[in-house]
From TrEMBL:
InterPro entries: FAD-bd_oxidored_4_C, FAD-bd_PCMH, FAD-bd_PCMH-like_sf, FAD-bd_PCMH_sub1, FAD-bd_PCMH_sub2, FAD-linked_Oxase-like_C, FAD-oxidored/transferase_4, Oxid_FAD_bind_N
Protein name per UniProt: D-2-hydroxyglutarate dehydrogenase, mitochondrial
Organism: Zygotorulaspora mrakii
Top EC group: oxidoreductase
Protein family: Belongs to the FAD-binding oxidoreductase/transferase type 4 family.
Cofactor(s) in the UniProt record: FAD
Function: Catalyzes the oxidation of D-2-hydroxyglutarate (D-2-HG) to alpha-ketoglutarate. Also catalyzes the oxidation of other D-2-hydroxyacids, such as D-malate (D-MAL) and D-lactate (D-LAC). Exhibits high activities towards D-2-HG and D-MAL but a very weak activity towards D-LAC.
SUPFAM superfamilies in the record: FAD-binding/transporter-associated domain-like (SSF56176), FAD-linked oxidases, C-terminal domain (SSF55103)
EC number(s) per entry: 1.1.99.39, 1.1.99.40
Length: 536
């Protein structure tokens, strides 16, 4: 058992720093709450405003055909009754028209949920010929307004394509339909001793195809790398209905352009991903999670460097959170005890995973002991079992929901050089305070909080608001993007461009790059039917 040893050793470590400094003793993460699940809050809130009303400068493209009876008859000719949802007196298709943040609301009157790749192909061929705009949709957990229509686009959900196709236990290569829910894919792999090489808070709803379409990063990119590395092949239905079969399972293949890469992160703009072939690593046998308190962002960076060097191959996640993010989460989880009674300026969640528990425990103990001796870590808890481990993770994974649930959230997901990572949160707070937008009601902003994947140089700045408010948006955009650009960062580290950042890509990509992206879009989708008003 790690618990006794750690408490003993770190009590010693704390004493080394001076008598009476018992707050520094690393404790076991006892008496934590049961697991909390991340959910959609659709029923609890007033309906969001229509995107077209909130952003009146975006006009419906008149080249797109408005859906007519003959189009519906065509869909009915190839789909069964339960593959088509139509808006009527009782059904407004809210689940498909509204995004997870409840920031964007489209006006689609029809959702198609085909059960086969061939049907998707027939639908796209028809829509392309008729110039009917289509929004590909997975689990609808995207965070940039890319997954929902802006006007009356047809929603094409891949949720009915949800079969595991094949798994090779020797190579670890999984082939599955795009609509398989990420958590289901991971549970399937767990039975075979493997793990999906991506994990994120929305795993219970998002799809394998959706995460590939977004090139999602998630909580363990530090260990498993980007999907650009682990995805080996894709099956994609192109806007003209052609089915691109590129479901390869080779780790090495240097014959021609690597076509699948174009679709990874293309956010539904050049094709609908219907199948994914992905290399999965063996599932670690031992996991440890520790939740640590530190006094400054400087110390977060020092602990990161130390963790990389000393935990080395067993380090699988390194996440940081500021105190304000934890205040929001405490408010959301009213009554659930936080790992620490006191507040500290910053928190770090470190996950280790490996094949030998004793070895990992020993490494982690040594690391924590020395981090406390150095005075970098001022308090900490270590999970003692699976439940505690999950509960420690919840204080990190529930920040998105906690930021959104009091009315809304403006989200910025940026890559920055590590030394500048937190300065964006400070700059945003200063700007919102100067503009008198931040504070108690009736001021619109509740908190501007920072957290993220330090290991990947990825900061999440969440500005929690009482309701969506144009003044707040104007204070933040393009201010945030200018800040990021001035530090040579990226305005999207992992959530993508979607509707939110369509007009801001120039802060990260140069004109030549933007032209090439536009040319590719036109090449694949000359009629622009796929996911219009987004991305580029
Ligand atoms: P959707 O939201 O339905 O769609 C997202 C985009 O992809 C849209 O543009 C859509 O048109 C397109 N798309 C979807 N499916 C397909 C398809 N089959 N073919 C072509 N295009 C398609 N992201 C991270 O990177 N890291 C995180 O840690 C992370 N954590 C999250 C935590 C929470 C609580 C939430 C709500 C979101 C989080 N995200 C994170 C955002 C992330 O982008 C999504 O969760 C996920 O990648 C989207 O998958 P989805 O199936 O829900 O896709
Ligand atoms: C996260 O890291 O929690 C995700 O990217 C989602 C978010 O920031 O909202
Ligand atoms: Zn993230």
């Amino acid at each position: 058992m790690i618990r006794g040893i750690i408490v003993k050793q770190l009590t010693k470590a704390a004493r080394l720093r001076g008598p009476g400094n018992v707050a520094g003793v690393l404790r076991a993460a006892a008496a934590l709450a049961p697991q909390i699940t991340i959910k959609h809050n659709y029923s609890s809130k007033a309906q969001p405003k229509l995107t077209s009303e909130l952003y009146p400068s975006v006009k419906r493209n008149p080249n797109y055909k408005k859906l007519a009876n003959e189009d519906i008859q065509f869909f009915q000719s190839i789909l069964t009754e339960n593959e088509i949802l139509q808006a009527n007196d009782k059904e407004d298709l809210a689940f498909y028209n509204e995004d997870w943040m409840r920031k964007y609301r489209g006006q689609s009157k029809i959702v198609l949920k085909p059960k086969s790749v061939e049907k998707i192909s027939q639908i796209l061929k028809y829509c392309n010929e008729q110039k009917i705009a289509v929004v590909p949709q997975g689990g609808n957990t995207g965070l940039v307004g890319g997954s929902v229509p802006v006007f009356d686009e047809v929603v094409l959900s891949v949720s009915n394509l949800n079969e595991i196709r094949n798994f090779d236990p020797v190579s670890g290569i999984l082939k599955c339909d795009a609509g398989v829910i990420l958590e289901n894919a991971d549970n399937f792999l767990a039975e075979h001793g493997y793990i999906f090489p991506l994990d994120l808070g929305a795993k219970g709803s998002c799809h394998v195809g959706g995460v590939v379409a977004c090139n999602a990063g998630g909580l363990r990119l530090l260990r498993y790398g980007s999907l650009h590395g682990s995805v080996l092949g894709l099956e994609v239905v192109l806007p003209n209905g052609d089915i691109l079969n590129s479901m390869h399972s080779l780790r090495k293949d240097n014959t021609g352009y690597d076509l699948k890469q174009l679709f990874i992160g293309s956010e539904g703009t050049i094709g609908i991903i219907t199948g994914v072939s992905i290399l999965t690593p063996p599932r670690p046998k031992a996991f440890n999670v520790s939740f640590l308190a530190v006094n400054s962002y400087e110390d977060v960076q020092k602990v990161f460097v130390k963790a990389k060097k000393e935990l080395l191959e067993i380090l699988s996640a390194f996440e940081f959170m500021d105190d304000k993010s934890q205040q929001l989460t405490k408010h959301h989880l009213a009554g659930v005890p936080h790992p620490f009674e006191e507040s500290y300026p910053f928190y770090i969640l470190i996950e280790t995973s490996g094949s030998n528990k004793d070895h990992d425990d020993e490494k982690l103990e040594k690391f924590l002991e020395s981090a406390m001796e150095d005075g970098l870590v001022v308090d900490g808890v270590v999970a003692q079992d699976e439940t505690e481990l999950r509960n420690l993770w919840q204080w990190r994974e529930l920040i998105p929901e906690s930021s959104q649930c009091q009315g809304g959230v403006y989200k910025y997901d940026v890559s920055l050089p590590l030394k500048h990572l937190y300065s964006l949160v400070e700059a945003a707070n200063a700007r919102l305070s100067e503009a008198a937008l931040l504070g108690d009601a009736p001021k619109p902003v509740i908190q501007a909080v920072g957290y993220g994947h330090v290991g990947d140089g990825n900061l999440h700045l969440n500005v929690a608001v009482r309701e969506y408010n144009k003044q707040v948006e104007k204070a933040l955009e393009p201010f945030v993007y200018e800040f990021v650009s001035s530090k040579n960062g990226s305005i999207s580290a992992e959530h993508g461009l979607g509707f939110q950042k369509k007009n801001y890509i120039g802060y990260t990509k140069n004109p030549q790059e933007i032209k090439m992206i536009k040319d590719l879009k036109t090449h694949f989708d000359p009629n622009g039917i796929l996911n219009p008003y987004k991305y580029i």
